[in-house]
Amino acid sequence: MSVLVLRHEPFEHLGHFARGLQAAEIPFEYKDLGSPLSLDGRTGLIIMGGPQSANDSNPALEAEMRLITEAIDKDVPVLGVCLGAQLIAKTLGARVHKNRLPEIGWAPVHFTDAAKTDPLFSSFDSPTTFFHWHGETFDIPEGAVWLAYSEDCRHQAFRYKTNVYGVQFHPEIEEAMILDWCAQPVNCGDVSSLAAPIVPVDPTAVDTASLAKKVFDGWLAVAGLKK
User: For 14, how many CA atoms within 13 A lie in the half-sphere containing its CB?
Assistant: First the structure.
């Protein structure tokens, strides 16, 4: 039992999710963008975020989408966050496109009626505040279930089959990660465009570790990985 994690930048890592894997005693391995990829022996696939676009003409991203297709075909559980969700959506034939405006910082996420019975999101209040950092978004793939939205982004989460999830917001985020992201040269343009500085702590005082645990424990359960 092990999980493969596709990482597009070293600073876009598992965050709180890593603790969930460690607590469940599930080994995991990062593969950075451009690394050789294989699902051999893997019982789960997680695709993290990054500053790239799912629409980039990039052989490494195309290889990731082929791996996502293979995982879905083999019924390997998949979880994608931000860019990862967009890559899953595009793999499933949905459109990835610019959001009507960039969504960066803390914002409420509302859950659809379908989320009320979803293993990952049924226990959340609607809305619940999460961290966001994206300029693009996805359409809901054909056959998938729409689970969440925000005021500025209609499609925040979906489920495909029973064990494939795409999540646009960042439930994995830690305070230190936000500070690190704001300092990264690749993110300077986003940061300078904001009307106010990003605050690293949720202004509604919701504990991000507990939010992450609820989401990730739900995914581990549907993935059949939770003891």
Answer: 22
CATH number assigned to the domain comprising residue 78: 3.40.50.880
Residue 170 lies in a domain: yes
6 forms bridges with which residues in the sheet? 31, 47
pLDDT given for residue 204 in this prediction: 73
Mark whether 170 is an active-site residue.
yes
Residue tagged active-site, from 103, 136, 172, 174:
172
Domain tally for the chain? 1
Provide the 10 A C-beta neighbour count for residue 214. Answer: 16
Residue 227 lies in a domain: no
Q: Is 172 a catalytic residue?
A: yes
What is the CB-side half-sphere exposure of residue 1 using CA atoms within 13 A?
A: 12
Active-site residue, selected from the candidate residues 8, 9, 82, 153: 82
97 assigned to some structural domain: yes
Q: Do the Cβ atoms of 155 and 138 come closer than 8 Å?
A: yes
- 82 noted as active-site residue: yes
Give how far Cα 128 sits from Cα of 1, 120, 167, Å.
32, 13, 14
- Run means of pLDDT, 10 residues per run, the chain, 227 residues: 96 97 96 97 97 97 98 98 98 97 95 98 96 97 98 98 98 96 94 88 82 97 88
* Structural domain boundaries, residue 100: 3-222
Angle at 49 between CA 46 and CA 51, to 5 degrees: 150
C-alpha span between 34 and 117 (Å, rounded)? 37
